[in-house]
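new request in #modeling-help
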Amino acid sequence: MSTIHTPRFTTALAIEAYKLRRSLALLLAGVAPLLIAVFVFFNMLQMDKPSPWEMAFKGSAGIWAFFMLPMSVTALTALVANSEHGPRTWDHLRALPIPRWHLYSAKATCVLGVVLLMSLALALMTWLAVQAAGWWKPNVAASGAPEIAVYLMLLGRIFLAAWLLVAVQLWIALRYASFVPALATGIGGTFFAVVATSAKIGAFLPWQIPVNQLASDPARAQLALMVGFAGGCITLIAMTWHLGRREVL
Amino acid sequence: MSHAIETQGLTRRFGDRTAVDDVSLTVPERSVYGFLGRNGAGKTTTIKLLLGLLRPDAGSARVAGIDITRDRIGAARKVGALLETQGFYPNLAGRENLDLSRRLLGVPASEVDRVLEVTELGAHSRRRVADYSLGMRQRLGLARAMLGATPVLILDEPTNGLDPEGIADMRGFLRELPARTGATVLLSSHLLGEIEQTATHIGILSHGRLVLEGALDQLKSGLASEVTVETDTPEHATAIAREHGFDVVHADDALVARFAPGEDVRAGTAALNRVLCMAGIHIHALAPRLRTLEALYRQAALSAAPAPALS
């Protein structure tokens, strides 16, 4: 008879990552940044003269933070949660001899990891798109040197600011077996973020916090970053506690 | 005899509905325990309580001697489960699904090959679960339940979706499991025939209450035996038999004689036959009614008062 022992959290995390194989969530993770890069590419081809690298990078980060990130997080969390809701695996997972908080925190860590990878993919794809546009139409090739570090720093701030958004969307997606509450919240939140772009409350609205990293006022960007990251950490802890204790009927 | 599973006054309510009502069951070690009840009787809720998926409102449950409410993880290490919801990732292969569970259980990789061999799924293990038939998924579920060779297996409706050949295979497999592995099997089903051919012990749940429990052979031996007598004149035959002190009833154009538990049925049947023949009654057939689980189930279910809150 084999001895069953409690695996470490890293095992649960590795398994979460493994579950993404051949999944729609992984497809989404690749397609979302690719769409922005394609937009950047064709947008440059529309121009008549060279523009600086910074402009392409800021444009890419703006689309990402303003619209694509909230929508991608909405879809990604719904898909990741549905990988358990759909085949009804919760009972099996929760009957295993592992602490239940491992399951939920591993899932949260995995989603954050995918969002980070999407951010990095966006950086790489945008760089490639700008290069490709310059190669395709030399007179619009980006001018100056690309400040990759600055761009990565901006994407990093957007990523950290998105933790509250990820936490809220993931909590709803895991709590409800139906897609509807998570999608309705995500679409509604993104809609309000778009229509109330300059509202002061935007620094506290999960779907608008990331785009605040592009604000011209550094204090506002800093406040949004703090709210997004700290709020995200607290919300993720609360989510793990709530879902770990909750009965799945 | 020690018990692999034991509950005391286990109770669980959903709102004003009592799904599991003061259930005290005992599953002996190395037994195949048939957990019977019609749909909605509370079997799945009881199983969820035993797996720590639900919290009881009252009572306690011990699995392999471990209190599930005090040490869920410790108890879960002793149990393999096949639940009604199969719960596989369709985008992954059968082997990959098993490997995920295997890693979460922290058992060696060789366990996957072992359970695939036992369930004869090895040839299909690299196919995606999305392409599996219902029967294959059920066998994969059984394979997953056996990972780690836990001392207790809890199987909720394991023959669901299996074809007749698959059901027969599963039946033989489960029957031999305690002898082969030392495991105890709690087998939930509403199929009396399956349980009768597989289980050594049974528990019957009705309206959330455990109405009968024990070793199947002992319980069946406690049933009254019956013999059906077919004649041209069942009413006359009934009267004659009663005159001679037989416990008989007239039912469906036949006469049914009842023999108390322990009574010599063969001798009694011969005596009845003699009495009726001597009275000039033409007998076409004498058919003993077997002491079946179905009879046991009907008796137990009928004797149980329905709970008013049953959905």
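bot summary: Chain B has two domains: 3-217, 224-290.
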